[in-house]
Prior knowledge:
Helix content is 85%, strand content 0%. By secondary structure, it is mainly α.
Amino acid sequence: xxxxxxxxxxxxxxxxxxxxxxxxxxxxxxxxxxxxxxxxxxxxxxxxxxxxxxxxxxxxxxxxxxxxxxxxxxxxxxxxxxxxxxxxxxxxxxxxxxxxxxxxxxxxxxxxxxxxxxxxx
Length: 121
């Protein structure tokens, strides 16, 4: 999976101008710690059929990923939040697998930016 880090870098630079490099580093570190847990939660909610809490968890991930310009993560979280018109649990599981892959592709760029921001702070 090819990940384009340009929107992430650009967004983090803009954020650093507003809240400082240390603030961006803290946000990135929080996102990196929280997102794997949220992905596991989403997987459990899909399996249990708890659509209300699935929408809440997906909405939260959509919002946090948009802060960093992670359009692919944001789009897939949006799909999980709002579902597919004819979709069911198999489609949700497919979207979650794609979401996990997108986040995994972004991971090295996120960690590198967190380190750079912490050093610049």
